[in-house]
Amino acid sequence: MSKRLKFYKNVLMTVLFIAALYVTWTTLSQVPVNELIGVENDRIEETRTASSIHPGLGVAAAKTIQRAETASASMGETVTALEKEINWSQYPVETVTATGYTANAESTGKKPGDPAYGITYSGVPVHRNVYSTIAADPALFPMGTVLFIPGYGYGVVTDTGSAIQGAKIDLYFDTTDQVYNEWGKKDVDVYIVQKGNGEISEEELAALNDRGVHEVGL
């Protein structure tokens, strides 16, 4: 009998000890266990979603592409609004053949880790925003020229290319999928919002993006 009582007593003490640890931990952390479980479930679901949308990629790479796709959708809405709200006939127009490129090896021959990766001819890093970096022939569109490209948005000439001669421009996109799915190759009328002076800096591009989409009277 005494052995049985001792066994029950040990079990009870163990249970009480575990309960005390739980109460102490939740009091100090102020985070209930069920909330932690919820956070972890959200993280697992986020990982599962990213990987299922882009199978075969690492989680980090898949999430990067997801963010780019979300930003691209928002950019499309902005461009549509600009096309409707602004009288583009007030600007000089030029018909060009427009293609798309990325910072990656298939477009530039450079890979992450290369000191010149993602850096344009002007020294400005590639950028996809309200005002994006594009490549053009400086003889037609000098460095710093701001164009409005229907279906793409504002493009600031920061780069050149051996194949970009005459009435050709190359538009920067974050991913190769965006190049193929959103653009490809098009003949398009572009509007010259401001003619460049042959120079452009990273600070000037940032200032353009800070000014916002409606301030086009540069």
From TrEMBL:
Gene3D superfamilies: RlpA-like domain (2.40.40.10)
One Gene Ontology cellular component annotation held by this UniProt entry: outer membrane
Name of the featured protein: 3D domain-containing protein
GO MF: hydrolase activity, hydrolyzing O-glycosyl compounds
Record key words, sorted: Signal
Entry-linked SUPFAM superfamilies: Barwin-like endoglucanases (SSF50685)
Domain of life: Bacteria
UniProt GO BP: peptidoglycan turnover
Segments forming domain 3D: 132-193
Pfam families on file: 3D
